[in-house]
Amino acid sequence: MIYLDNAATTKMYKEAIEAEIDVAENFYANSSSIHSFGMESENLIKETKKIFAKVINAKENEIYFTKGASESNNIVISSFASLENMAITTSIEHSSVFDAFNNYKYKKVIYLKNDKYGFIDLEDLKNKLNDNIKLVSIIYVNNEIGTIQDIEKISKIIKDYDENICLHIDATQALGKIDCNVAKLSCDIMSFSAHKFHGPKGVGGLYISNKFIAKIKPIIYGGRQQVISSGTDNHQAIYAAGVAIKKQTVDKEYAYIQKLNSYLREKINSHISDSYIISPENDSSPYILDVAFKNIKAEVLVHYLEDSEIYVSSGSACSKGEDNRILRAIDLDKAYIDGAIRFSFSSYISFEDLDKTADVLKSGIEMIREFM
C-alpha cells in the first residue's frame, strides 16, 4: 500500500498508540475528579500542555484542548460574531472556517483577494482594514494546495493598524511540519488538530494568547473542562497527541519530505503531458503537492490509483462531492479544474513508492484520456 493522503489524516505513530492504550488502561479516571486518581489524569493533560507550549513557544496556560480543529475554528469565529463586528478572511479557507463565517452573524465578512498560487494580496488587506474589524482569520498552510501565507507580514499590517484586532490562524496543516513559533508569527490564536501529525483523531486545540482569552466562548455549554470546550476531557487522546507532536518535531523529517515532493514534481513534469502543478514551488509546504491533469476526471483517476493500492485525494476530504471552491478562487483553467489530484506525504513514503505511483499515474491518465 502507498498512502499519499496524509493531508486528510496520518497514520498514528506506534508510540502514540501505545501511550493512548497505556493511559486508557491505567489512568482512566475523569480528569475533573478531585480525588487523587483523577488528579493523575489531570496531570497528564498538564504535562501535554507543556509539550505543546514548548513546540510553539507559548505559555502553558495559553494551550487549550478541543475535539479537533473544526471545533477550534468554530469557537473562534463564533466568539467574535456580532451584528456590530466585521471580520476579514479569504476564499481559500478550510471549510470549517469558510462555512462558520457563513453561519455566524457578522455585520460584514470581507474576503481578501489572492493570486493564482493562493497568496493573499497584502495591499488589499491594508485597504480593507477598518475600525469595525475585530477578527482576521487566515489559513497558514492551505490544506489543498500547500500555499504558506506570510503570517509575520500579515500580522504587522494588522497590528500597525490596530493591535486590538485579533489574528487567528488555522495551523492544521502547519503544526509539526513548519515553524509555528507564535511569538515570531505574532498571531493571537492558532488552531491545530492531532490527526494531522500522527496523533489520534478526535482531539485538537487552540493556542489563545492571554490577551484574548476573555473574548472566547464555547460553542457547546456544560462543564467547560477546557474553559472553551465543554465535555469530559479525552485525556488519553490528549496525552497521545503530545507524544506524537514531540516525536514529529524531534524526528526533523522536513528535508526528507522536501526531497519526496521535488522527486514527484519532476516525475510528473517530465513523464506526463498536459499536467499543471498547482502548488507553488516557493513558500509552499512540501507535505502537499496538488497537480491537475487536462481532460481528466479526478474521481476516476483516484479510483484507478486505488486499484493499485495507491491512495490519494481529489481536493480536500472536507469538500468531497462539492464544486472545488479553492481551485475556483485561484482561477484555475477550466480545462484542468476537474482533474486536480492532491498528493500528501509522510516519512512512511519511499522514493520507490513514488516511482510506482508515477508509473501507475501515467498509465491511468493515458487510458482515461483514450476513452474520453
From TrEMBL:
Residues covered by the Aminotransferase class V domain: 2-356
Record-linked PROSITE patterns: AA_TRANSFER_CLASS_5 (PS00595)
Cofactor requirement: pyridoxal 5'-phosphate
SUPFAM superfamilies, alphabetized: PLP-dependent transferases
Record has Membrane as a keyword: no
Entry's Gene Ontology molecular function annotations: iron-sulfur cluster binding; metal ion binding; transaminase activity
Stated family: Belongs to the class-V pyridoxal-phosphate-dependent aminotransferase family. NifS/IscS subfamily.
The name this protein goes by in its record: Aminotransferase, class V
Annotated source species: Anaerococcus tetradius
